[in-house]
Design brief:
With 78 residues, this protein is mainly α. It has 5 helices and no strands. The mean pLDDT is 87.
């Protein structure tokens, strides 16, 4: 999801704080969503996708890929 956010931010000149206000969530909650630490509920995911001008399915793919990378790193630790 962070890639979609970066594209949106570059296009609009707005910040993560701006997007959090637009979404009606805290900066930290939005950060957790963008970095894959938390999954937004379906309605919030659709609203986030709409705000970013992104496909919700693609946002889920990005989130799944990020989570897979985190799990791989954690399982590789001694």
């Amino acid at each position: 999801m962070i890639d979609a956010y970066r594209t949106w931010s570059a296009r609009t000149g707005q910040t993560r704080a701006d997007l959090a206000r637009l979404m009606g969530v805290s900066y930290s909650v939005l950060g957790r969503w963008l970095h894959g630490a938390r999954m937004p509920r379906p309605a919030r995911l659709r609203a986030l996708a709409d705000a970013l001008g992104a496909d919700p399915v693609e946002l889920l793919r990005q989130l799944d890929a990020r989570k897979a990378n985190v799990l791989a790193r954690e399982s590789a630790r001694p």
